Amino acid sequence: MAIAVSEGLELSQEYIIEEILGLHRDIRDLSDEEILYGPSDQNGELFRKLDALITLEMDDKTAQEILQKKELEPVFTDIIRFRNLYTVKLETEHANEVLANESPWDVLEQFPFYGNYLKLVRTEYEGIGLKPGDTVAFLGSGPLPLTLIVFFREYGVKSIGIEQVSTRANLSRRLIEKLGLSEDITIVNGNHFSLDGKDFDANLDSGVRALMVAAQAESKKEIFEHLLKVMPLGSRISCRIYEKGLRKLLNGNCLLDLPEGFEEQMRVHPEPPVYNTVVFLEK
Prior knowledge:
By secondary structure, the protein is α/β, with parallel strands linked by helices. The protein has helices spanning about 15-25, 30-35, 40-55, 60-65, 75-100, 105-110, 115-130, 145-155, 165-180, 220-230, and strands spanning about 135-140, 160-165, 185-190, 210-215, 235-240, 265-270, 275-280. It has two domains: about 15-105; about 115-280, Vaccinia Virus protein VP39 (Rossmann fold, 3-Layer(aba) Sandwich), CATH 3.40.50.150.
């Protein structure tokens, strides 16, 4: 399946749906292991096709009508699974390349989306109102915790990364150690239930100033229900979501509406090459 659209051509729903179904036919039978450990060339091509598909320029009305089709829900579930797992594959491979190299920082910066993280972290640093020496927590830090690394390298902000898959948490700890950042970045093997809110205080320099929720951290509904119970009043949270065009399908069951009990302070829309909207909330 090749996605090639001439500039200015209006896309029909039928065309877009056929592209979605064509991609789905290529990925629906892939097991988790085949995505994580299969040939990079084949799965990489599928990943690039998916990226081209979700970034097609279209009006939000058309995209929303497609995303609301009940018959496509299983298709979107398979597409999200593929993208999430292949992203883990890319991050894992790059983390191992950093570990194996004598110039780890040079290799780290070669990650294809490194520039995206520079812009995304700057948005969060400014939006939360952080300063050097502050500490943040990040839910869903993954095997290659670039958010945490960029926060410290660019702004001197320390962090606690929370990763629920133990092998990914262990790999990221080794990476942090290789980069000489173990005193500034801590990786915890856990999930949102690991958060009890005791260390969070936006008004104390010694406390965790804010919690950031990764775009792939799921389920958002369950996460925010727990945070509502345990986070102290005044807690600040930033949440990464997708809300433009077909990128919305990557949210899965993410809540696009404001979670009850949290007040939205600001919403920063993405500028290329960043895809994520960042929503800033306060309890």
